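User: Predict the complex.
Assistant: Input components as received:
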Amino acid sequence: MRADAVNAIEVLRAEGRRITTARRTIIELLGETPDHLTAEDIAAHVHAAHPEVHMSTVYRTLESLETWGLVEHFHHGHGAAFFHLSASHPHAVCAECGRVLDVPAREFMPLVDHVRDAYGFELDVAHNALIGRCLEHAPSAH
Amino acid sequence: MRADAVNAIEVLRAEGRRITTARRTIIELLGETPDHLTAEDIAAHVHAAHPEVHMSTVYRTLESLETWGLVEHFHHGHGAAFFHLSASHPHAVCAECGRVLDVPAREFMPLVDHVRDAYGFELDVAHNALIGRCLEHAPSAH
DNA sequence: GTTCTTGCAAAAGCTTTGCAGGAAG
DNA sequence: CTTCCTGCAAAGCTTTTGCAAGAAC
């Protein structure tokens, strides 16, 4: 189990939350994969080991973990949201192939600072993915 | 009727598309409001004058107009997409009050250029809104 | 008249909720 | 044993689709 996941379980324990099958399994899964998973992806993986875990439990678990700051999700327009262990940074999703690019938060800092100064708006660049096209699918790349 | 809307109707006519009640009404509505409307908002306005226009017609009309480059939509995470006459620029939506800030595209150009150079990814900053908090709801403003 | 568009109804995709039984501590 | 969590079923919200009737040109 990766350090992220161990830590998340520790946090649960420290705060007196119950460590259930769904919670442990989902945290382990999110800790093991570098990918960005939808609730359905997560349910599929969980079912492989624990077929009794219901979809609604997956959603409720993700919601709880997010409330406690252990998990985050982001949207990319059409389709389901993506979930991952907390580690706020922006994402860019290719409109053609769905590939997700993790962008370090620092790349957005000048923009965030500028928008704050000029418009009085504090951007949370991690909550919604930006849509675009990756190298292979860029309009200029053919 | 605003110039944008007149122009959009002209384009339809010039391309030999049919000018139907739904199309004309929706274009006029989008031309008249500075707001960003959901399909449901649009249907409500259209119904006021033309109660027979069905929700599915609203969606199909918006889809067609978008295909022809006259309308655009963007997403802001949870909830319905927003539609407006074409005029690509990024949006920032306040997570607290839902207020939408229009951001000139030029503000994003340095970021877009940098991400293209550094990551080979062409961002389309207009398709997904960025989430954040406006002046009154910023974490630091209380 | 011919072709494109619409109204209706039904369903699809993602997510939330009420409730009663069950597990964690 | 008490409180919190879960399974199930049902529904909610946004959006899409098939089809036959209807409107635009």
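The helical segments of chain B are 3-14, 21-32, 39-49, 55-67, 109-119.
Let me know if you want any component modeled separately.
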